[in-house]
Each structure stands twice: as C-alpha cells, then as structure tokens.
Amino acid sequence: MKGTYTLLVELKDATKIEFGAKGTRKLDSGWYAYTGSAFGQGGFSRIARHGRVASGENDARHWHIDYLLGHDGSALVDDVRTEGEDVECAVARELGEEVELVSGIGASDCDCDTHLHFSPDRERFETVIRRAHE
C-alpha cells in the first residue's frame, strides 16, 4: 500500500540534534510530527524502516527525520496514514497553520518550509494531525 504518512515522535528532553546538511537545531521536549510520502517501491514499508531507525536496529541516516528518530531521547509513538493519496504537502501546510514549525526539515524536494512540526500537547497535536489527513 502507498500513500502519505505522518509520524508522531516524542522527545523526552530538550536537546540539540544535527540534521545532516541542514545543521544543528535546538529542539524542545514534547511532540514532533513528520509528514512524508510513501509512493516509491515498498510504499508504507518506509514507516517500518523509520521504526528500525527509532529502535536502533538501523543506524543509517537517509532522510532528515532519521536524525531525530535515531536520537536516544526520542520515541516513535504512532503514525497516521492516508492511503493512495499524495497529500504530503497539503498535510504539512495544514499542520503549519496549527502548530510550531521546525523550519527547513524534510522539505528539500518541494517548496514547503518544513515537514516537521512541534507541539507540547500530544492530545491536541494528534487531533490536528488526524484532521489534516482527512
């Protein structure tokens, strides 16, 4: 199955994370949402790969989100999917209207400012993410 997904990631403590060529960012503790697309070979199996990075089974840093997922203080908690539709940028833009942006992360192949967002409030954040995927 292919489509668009948003990962929900918890960062337990504030920290600095280097996002490859995008440089180091100071991130607050709280909740992060990363929106991506899974239309290539394997489709949503990309989410399982993200899970392996988050669990430490895979230490390759292929996408910007891998730097956050691979950090010891982060945990991949959930994902929301829209099957068969390429709504990656639409979801990212809608999230950007509701919560904080982590500028320049995960949007190197489009003209969005970012595909990574932050909120200190998990419950509200999940509501916003699910609504953006409808």
Description:
The protein has helices spanning 45-55, 65-69, 88-98, 122-133, and strands spanning 3-11, 15-18, 24-27, 30-38, 74-83, 100-101, 116-119. It has 134 residues and is an alpha+beta fold. The mean pLDDT is 94. The chain has one domain (3-133). Strand 2 and strand 3 form a beta hairpin. The chain contains 4 helices and 7 strands, in the order E-E-E-E-H-H-E-H-E-E-H. Helix 3 runs antiparallel to helix 4. The strands form 2 sheets. Strands 5-1-4-7-6 form a 5-stranded antiparallel sheet, with helices on both faces. It has a two-stranded antiparallel ribbon with strand order 2-3. It is globular.
Question: What would a concise description of this structure say?
Answer:
This protein is an alpha+beta fold. It has helices spanning 45-55, 65-69, 88-98, 122-133, and strands spanning 3-11, 15-18, 24-27, 30-38, 74-83, 100-101, 116-119.
Tally of domains? 1
Q: How many H/I helices?
A: 4
Give the proportion of residues in helices: 25-40%
Strand arrangement in the largest pleated sheet: 5-1-4-7-6
Provide the gyration radius in Å: 13 Å
Strand content is: 25-35%
The first-to-last residue Cα distance is 17 Å
**H and E string:** EEEEHHEHEEH
Q: Class by helix and strand content? A: alpha+beta
Let me know the average pLDDT.
94
Contiguous low-pLDDT stretches (5 residues minimum) are: none
